[in-house]
Amino acid sequence: MVTITQRVSLVLAGITLMLSGCTVTEKPIDSDAQAWRAYDRINELVGSNEPVRGPISLYEAMARALKYNLDQRIELMDEAWKKKLSDVSELGMMPAFDVGGGRNWRNNYSGSSSRSLLDGTESLQSSTSSDRQTWNGELSASWDILDFGLSWVQSKQNIDEQYIAQERRRKVISRILEDVRTAYWRAVSADRTHEKLIKLEAMAQKALWQAAQLEKRRNVAPLSVLNYQHDLLEIQANVQRMQRELFFAKKQLAALINLKPETPFKLVLPDRTAVVPELPGSAEQMILIGLKYRSELRESSYRKRINERELDKVLLKNLPSFKALLGLSYDSNSYLYNNTWTNFSSSVSWNLMSLFRYPMERDAVHAEAGLIQAREDALVMAILTQIYVARARFIRLSQELNTVRQGHEVQERILTLTEAGFKGRMISQKDLVQVEMKSILDEVRYDTAYADLQNAYANLYASMGIDSFDLGNTDKESVAMIAGKLQEYWTEEITTLPQLVREEGEKQ
């Protein structure tokens, strides 16, 4: 027979075994394995992209960025996550259904004993009301009105969070497209002038060597030779600076369209055009459009609505709670008169601390509302500044492009006359080299000025938050389909935007 001491020892041994299982250890992360996983993951992501089959146009570059850019993919997944959270919060309005069961066992009977006198003889009698082994189960449904109200308000807030995620995705898409346009035009300038810059640097090196020989032979006045060398070194420094700036443009573009930096690709080199895009409207009209379409302001409006509903949550949390429960129970105990029964219960509870907590929580929500409004005021001022700066920059760059274009035309005429004079032995080779260098530099400046104007044109509409084109689900569309939509927008629909801006401004 097991003694009390043995039973206590068994219980203590069981407790010790359970406590020893609560000790948790974990190995540190393997840095080498992590690096290889990250490397393989990037290779997998890049390898799943549509391959580049030819020179990349501007719209294909924008399409690849929208389809494969990782920043845009983050916002898309964040939007999907917010949608899942909204679905989960709606379940909180449903009753809670609980199901449970268990088995009870003991090594002897549970009961009581009594002593009685029968025919003058004392006897010991025992009784029990439970089997040594029983099974039980329960199915219940409970519903708390307070939880229902809180879940309803939370669902509304989660829907607004989903809208905020959409606005953030709009903002990221707008930034990506603007960055792609900037990198693309600079990469076009790099491709178009790469060979010319190499030729120009080679010419400068050769001319410097020739100038050094003239200085040694003293065939030319020293001051004239030194001035010539100084001009050549200045041209060479400009060439190297341009090569450095334009070299990284293609690398940046590759990153934006999710290509590896070492991936070779060519670009479609569009013809230069003298047509300057039209300003969409007056400064006031553009500001009104920006205040209507900018994603940051829309996000602020949703934040305000979330804050207003937070007041409802604070009020509901501090109201009395009413809870109702309906359940069906079963017990296998053979001594019970009824082995199955239905039960219903209800309860009301109220935390009296709510009387003190509610005013403090309400004031905290009001303080957050003031903070949101202050941020919105600062945001409005920033948007006004961005629109004014984008408009002024576009006007200034339009004027600069016109000046650069006229200077380019004049320089081409100078080069033509200089080449003719050199053939007629009226102009020295030194002067011809200087003119040729200036002509190539002038052409690079022309390309750069044209690229800057195109970027300013895109920034003009980005500052107003206009992105009315519907891209749909880019994951299910090919690069060519997305590129077609973008080209249609920028070549057809964009021409109607100045009229849209004016009409919207008149409505305001």
Topology:
Blueprint: H1 4-20, H2 31-47, H3 58-68, H4 70-91, E1 96-105, E2 111-118, E3 121-128, E4 133-144, H5 145-217, H6 222-256, H7 283-293, H8 295-317, E5 321-331, E6 340-349, H9 354-423, H10 429-464, H11 479-491, H12 497-507
Antiparallel strand pairs: 1-4, 2-3, 4-5, 5-6
Helix pairs in contact: 3-5, 3-11, 4-5, 5-6, 5-8, 5-10, 6-10, 7-9, 7-12, 8-9, 9-10
Low-confidence stretches: none
Please state the CA-atom Rg, rounded to the nearest Å.
Answer: 40 Å
Shape assignment: elongated
Largest sheet: 4 strands, antiparallel
Can you walk through the features of this model?
By secondary structure, this protein is α+β, with helices and mostly antiparallel strands. The chain is 67% helix and 12% strand. The strands form two sheets. The chain has a four-stranded antiparallel sheet. Strands 2-3 form a two-stranded antiparallel ribbon. A hairpin with an 8-residue loop joins strand 5 and strand 6. Helix 7 crosses helix 9 and helix 8 packs antiparallel against helix 9.
